[in-house]
Design brief:
Two copies of one chain form a homodimer. Chain A is an all-alpha fold and 359 residues long. Chain A has two domains: 153 residues; 190 residues, no CATH class. Helices cover 66% and strands 0% of the residues of chain A. The first copy, chain A, contains eleven helices and no strands. In chain A, helix 7 runs antiparallel to helix 9 and helix 10 packs antiparallel against helix 11. Chain A is globular. At the A-B interface, helix 4, helix 5 and helix 11 of A face helix 4, helix 5 and helix 11 of B.
């Protein structure tokens, strides 16, 4: 083993990569977390305020605060993922108590960002579906375009009303998520997480055996979990363009999210864990795997479109809306379900590409 | 020329094909027309009655009458197309007066069939979108499925109401088209067409020069018109799956049919003329060109989906409909526009295949 320890940890083909590499990775991520937290506090922690008057004209300080929140989420996800994949190397009690807290934190911080992105996606789609000039973008004047005053223009009025309804509902949700995030960052629960991460930055609680455990089989197991989940996906259907699968049950009475989306969301999470495991192995020298990158982007798009479609369907259940508004929301829902289908096709295309290198 | 006339007319590679082949083709089509007309009269000429109680259980006599009407349209289109493509061989006055009458006849007969097919397509799509058991098929009991009584089931109620609305509107349109077709077949205008076709069955009004005019350059010109029109199509976009092009302006205020569909409809007509010209050349021995077949089927699907999407959008403009109905019609509209896009992709795929043989 002593000889193998001389192998550089950045080349996983040369021999086992052990506890030191994991400790180094976790320390780096913890340091990133603390830096992001400091930046978030310095910039007021009031990132991307859902001010209705000029939501796009985010001020410098706020943009920095948004970036800081993103960096916080980024390192929290990586720490949590590494704790999961490389469990046998870490103190079990500490690890078990840490993971749900990190999940709570990144989930709370992600929500505001998600509502903002969803609104932008839906308004963008309404714009595209209405012809570029017919519908005001978010935050712009809602003055009706000339065509909308024509008697035949009720469907475009519908698009405008649908946009206003979604703007109202998702901006409210975003505002609430923003307050919740601020409240979370001021809570004693968060301070406990931050303290734990501060300890992690200097001293990683490895088990005594960690220095002799090879990380590579653990990383390989994470990859196997991903591969198994991908194998279970309906990839033959997804690879056949225009299979019309994503809109099946598009009008069913079930208001829950599409059950057919769940395995894809699961693959998205497993892909992320696989990517983080690679980061640990290739410390600071991770070769960009175009295949994983493309597959991951497709799954992000899948998730975003799936949630946007749900938001459109949910808005259509608002009481007392006009038929033209409901019609526009129906078109929008179907459009986003097509996006879901397109994202699955894109994932299939990316996944078919030969793997560049696997750990 | 005398030597070349000995070449069998069924082999266009062997030499020019002249007036005789055209005369033979027109006589055959005219005979088909007269046979179909006789069959239509014998079966009561009351094909596919839009009876609301059992529209699918068409009786034998009616099915025969539907077949007869289809055969009438089939030969009317072929005569009209040949008159157009091989104009220089035919008496100009006769030809010019005949074509609009044949177009009127096949258009009138086609309408009833089209409304029936459109309704079937839309109800089939609603079924698919609602989950298989949630929506009663046309003519079945409208008793609500269990899920629809749940409070969250308003969207499925919407699908059922949308189906009932479309059934009402398109069945009415079909009934009117049926009456119009019956009226047309009893009119003196139709009797004049039938008399002209009866003359054509025995004596084709060729020009004196017809026996020396080669049909092949005329058929090639028809093919060139098709090829030029295909070249002008946005095929690069159509060949890229999920380009989302067909739903652009899906919510625009313009109630007219999608202008982006028109070039595709035009190619559909030119493809038909090309196919009929081939039939004249390969009398009775037309090799089935899989490429043309696939391309033609894709363009039929394109036309059907385009018109079904318009019908859904038009139904959504019915005053005083419930928001849930309008929502379902919006989903349905987008679904059919997606079908339009899928049909363009299918056309691109079929067209890319190497031509088996061209005249």
């Amino acid at each position: 083993m002593a000889q193998q320890h001389l192998d550089p940890p950045t080349d996983p083909t040369a021999g086992p990569v052990c506890g030191d590499a994991l400790a180094g990775y976790l320390r780096t991520q913890a340091t990133e977390f603390l830096r992001a937290l400091r930046q978030h506090r310095e910039t007021g922690g009031d990132g991307g305020p859902p001010v209705r008057t000029k939501p796009r004209a985010v001020e410098n300080g706020s943009q920095e605060s948004v970036d800081a929140a993103r960096a916080l989420r980024r390192s929290a996800r990586r720490i949590s993922g590494s704790l999961h994949t490389f469990r046998p190397l870490l103190d079990a009690d500490w690890s078990e108590s840490m993971r749900p807290e990190l999940a709570w934190l990144s989930g709370t911080l992600a929500r505001e960002h998600a509502y903002g992105g969803r609104l932008e996606r839906l308004l963008g789609a309404l714009n595209r579906l209405s012809g570029s000039a017919a519908f005001p973008a978010q935050g712009q004047s809602a003055e009706p375009a000339g065509s909308r005053t024509q008697p035949s223009g009720n469907l475009t009025v519908g698009a405008a009303k649908a946009g206003a309804l979604l703007d109202r509902q998702l901006t409210l949700a975003r505002t609430r998520a923003h307050s919740a995030a601020l409240q979370a960052l001021g809570s004693s629960r968060f301070h406990a997480v931050a303290d734990s991460v501060a300890v992690l930055a200097s001293e990683v609680p490895l088990t005594p055996a960690a220095s002799a455990i090879d990380l590579r089989p653990l990383a390989a197991a994470a990859q196997d979990r991903l591969t198994d989940a991908v194998t279970a996906l309906p990839l033959v259907t997804a690879g056949h363009p225009y299979n019309a699968e994503a809109l099946v049950h598009g009008l069913s009475a079930d208001t829950a999210p599409h059950p057919q989306d769940a395995p894809w969301h699961q693959v998205r999470l497993l892909l992320r864990l696989h990517r983080y495991a690679r980061e640990v192995l290739y410390v600071g020298d991770d070769p960009v795997d175009v295949r994983l990158l493309g597959a991951g982007q497709a799954l992000n798009r899948h998730r975003d479109a799936s949630e946007a479609a749900s938001a459109a369907a949910s808005a259509a259940r608002t009481p007392r809306i006009a038929p033209a508004t409901a019609y526009a929301l129906g078109v929008l829902h179907a459009d986003q379900r097509h996006e879901v289908e397109a994202a699955r096709f894109a994932f299939h295309q990316a996944w078919q590409k030969e793997a560049v290198r696997t750990p």
